[in-house]
Amino acid sequence: MSLAMVPLGRTGTTVSELAFGTWRFGRQADDGEVEVGRDRAHELLDAYAAAGGNFIDTADMYGDGASETYIGEWLEARDREDFVVASKVFWPTREDANGRGLNRKHLRRQMDRILDRLGTDYVDLLYIHRWDDETPVEEFMRTLDGFVRDGKVNYLGTSTLEPNAWKVVKANELADKRGYEPFKIAQPRYNAVNREIEGNYLDMCADYDIGVVPWSPLAGGFLTGKYARDERPPADSRAANDQRFADSYLTPSNFDALEVIEEVAEAVGASPAQVSLAWLMHHPQVTAPIIGARTVDQLGENVVAADIELTNEQFKRISTAKRHLSA
C-alpha cells in the first residue's frame, strides 16, 4: 500500500495522511537504555518512506537532539525535497534563565542548532512546543516571522497540551495586523478518549483554516486494547508503572469508548489501534495523525489503518462514545 497525500492545512503543501513521530529516537529510559537507537531509527524511516510517508515530526528536545541528528543522517542519502520535516522549540536546553521558552535569544540559538542537526537549510514546519506566557506574543511572533523571511522555516505551527484557542487567535490576529506569518498548523492531543479540543479549540481551527495534526492518537497505548476493565494492567505496561497514567486512562468512561472501538474493530476485521487511527483519518478536521513505533512491525500495523473504511454509522458511534470530556 501507499499512503495518500493530503493538504497540509492552507499551506499549499501536501503531506502523507499519517505523519511519523520520532519522539522515541535517542530517548533514554531510567536504566540508561536507548529506546530507539540510530540503526533502528533509520530502519523505521526506511519503512515509513517505503509506505509512501513523507511527513516526519521531531523536536529539538527529543533524545536531547539525537532525534534530529538521526533524521539528518538519514536524509543525507535522499532528496531532501521529497520530505516535509517538522520540528519544535520551547523546552529547556540550558541551565540559564534564557535557555528555555520563546524568548528571542533561545529561539535563535535553537533554530541554528535544529538546522545543524538535521543537516538542512530549512524546516518545512516549526512548531512552538508549548505556549510561553512570560514572553510577549509580539516578541516571539516577530522572531518566528523572521525565520520565515530568512528562508529557515516555511510554515509555523503551535503544539499544545492544554487547549488555548484564544491565545492562538490573539497571535494570529496580531500577525495579520503586523504582516507576520501566522500559525497555520495546530498539533494538539486528540484521540477517541482525549476530547478536550472539541468545542472552542477545534472550532477555532476550522474558522481560521488551521490544519490539525494530532499527537497521541492511541492515547498513550490505551486504545491498543491492551487494558481490560476491572483487570490489573500487564506488568510491563505503562499503566502498571505510572499511577498518573492509570488514574487518567483506566476510567469507566474510557473503557466505554474502548469497547465501542473494539466492537467496530471486530466488524471491520482490524485491531482497536487501527480503528482508532482510522477514526482520526476519517475526521473532516484532521490533517494527519502522528504515529510512532519502536519496531518496523509496529509501524506496519499502524500504516494499515489507511486501508480501513469506516461507515458513517461506525464513525458516529466512536464519535459519540465519549464527547467533550477529558480523560
Describe the overall structure.
- By secondary structure, the chain is α/β, with parallel strands linked by helices.
- It has a single domain, classed as Alpha-Beta Barrel (TIM Barrel).
- An eight-stranded parallel beta sheet has the order 9-8-7-6-5-4-3-10, with helices on one face. The protein has a two-stranded antiparallel sheet with strand order 1-2.
- It has twelve helices and ten strands.
- Its EC number is 1.1.1.-.
Shape: globular
**What's the name of the CATH homologous superfamily?**
NADP-dependent oxidoreductase domain
What CATH calls the topology is TIM Barrel
SSE pattern, N- to C-terminal = EEEHEHEHEHEHEHEHHHHEHH
The strand count comes to 10
CATH domain class name:
Alpha Beta
Structural class: alpha/beta
Q: Can you tell me the CATH architecture? A: Alpha-Beta Barrel
How many independent structural domains? 1
Main pleated sheet = 8 strands, parallel
Mean pLDDT: 95
Strand content: 5-15%
Radius of gyration: 19 Å
Task: Please report the distance between the alpha carbons of the first and last residues.
Answer: 34 Å
* Low-pLDDT ranges: none
Strand order, biggest sheet? 9-8-7-6-5-4-3-10
Fraction of residues in helix: 25-40%
Please work out how many helical segments DSSP would assign.
12
GO molecular function, one term: oxidoreductase activity
Keywords: Oxidoreductase
Organism: Haloferax gibbonsii
EC number: 1.1.1.-
